[in-house]
Amino acid sequence: MSDLYTQLITVFLGYFAIMNPIANTAAFAGLAGSKSKQEQVKIAAKALTITFFIILTFAILGKTIFHLFGITIDALRITGGILVFLVGYHMLNGHSSKLHSTEGNDDSDIAVSPLAVPLLAGPGTIATTMNYSATGGMTGIIVTVAVFAVLCLITFVCFIFSSNILTVIGKSGLSIVTRLMGLILAVIGTQMIISGVTAVVSKMA
User: Fold this and answer.
1) Is 106 inside any structural domain?
2) Nearest to 59 by CA among 166, 162, 131
3) What is the pLDDT of residue 33?
4) 46 neighbors 151 (Cβ within 8 angstroms)
5) Would you state the pLDDT for residue 160?
6) Any alpha helices (H) in 93-161, and if so which ranges?
7) How many other C-beta atoms can be found within 10 angstroms of the C-beta atom of residue 104?
8) How far apart (Å, rounded) are the C-alpha atoms in residues 142 and 55?
9) What is the arithmetic mean of pLDDT over 46-72?
10) Is 25 contained in some domain?
11) What CA–CA distance (Å, rounded) separates 71 from 32?
C-alpha cells in the first residue's frame, strides 16, 4: 500500500510540475481574459477535455506505440527525460519553454491550440505519461490516468478563477512558482535520464 501511495505522490508531483496550473493560468488569462465568464468556462472545459483524451490515448497505447515503432522503454526514459529537463531548465531561469510557446498560433480556437496543445498536452507531458504508464503495468495506467484527471480538474478551477488567482499571487509570486516547478521538472528529467542510461549500461554489461 505504501508503494501505491509513493507512486501516487510521484506521479502527482510530476504532472503538477509539468502542467504548472498557476503559470498556465496566466497564459489562459492572457488568451481568454477579455472574454465573458461563460465563454471562459467553455474554452477551459474544451481545452482540458481534449488534453485529457490525448493523455489517455498515450497512457493506454504507450506499449503498442513502442512495439509499432520499435521503441524501448529505456530510449523513452532518456529522450523524455531530456525533454522534461529542458522544460524545467527554461522555467527555472524564469522563461517559458519553446516547447510550450503560444506564439505563432491561430486564435480562431484557442482551446485546441495553444491551450490543449502544446501548453497542457505538450511533448514533456506526453513523454511523462508514457514513462509512468508503460513501466507500471495496468496499475501504472490506472494511477497515471486518475492522477491526470485530478490535475485537469485543478487546472479547470484555476482557469475559471484566473483573474482572482493572479491578483492574489502577483507577478513575483508567479515567478517564484514557475521557478520552483522548473526545479522539480529538471530533477525529474535528470532521474529519467539516469534510469534509462543505467538500464542500457546494465544490459550491455
Assistant:
1) yes
2) 131
3) 85
4) no
5) 95
6) 123-134, 137-160
7) 7
8) 12
9) 90
10) no
11) 39
The answer to the question of residue 54 being in a domain is: yes
pLDDT band at 76 (very low <50, low <70, confident <90, very high): confident
Residue 113 per-residue DSSP state: I
Report how far residue 150's alpha carbon sits from residue 172's, in angstroms, rounded to the nearest whole number: 27
- DSSP code for 110: T
Domain count, the chain: 1
Nearest 5 degrees, angle CA 24-CA 169-CA 6? 60
Rounded distance, CA 159 to CA 25, Å? 5
How far apart CA 4 and CA 2 sit, in angstroms, is 5
**If you average pLDDT over every residue of the chain, what do you get?**
86
With beta carbons less than 8 A apart as the criterion, state whether 163 and 29 touch. Answer: yes
Confidence of residue 106 (pLDDT cuts 50, 70, 90): very low
Contact assessment for residue 87 and residue 23, using Cβ atoms and an 8 Å cutoff: no
The domain of 189 spans 37-197
Question: For residue 70, what is its C-alpha cell?
Answer: 520499435
CB atoms within 10 A of CB 91: 26
* Within-domain flag for 6: no
Distance (Å, whole) CA 139 – CA 78: 23
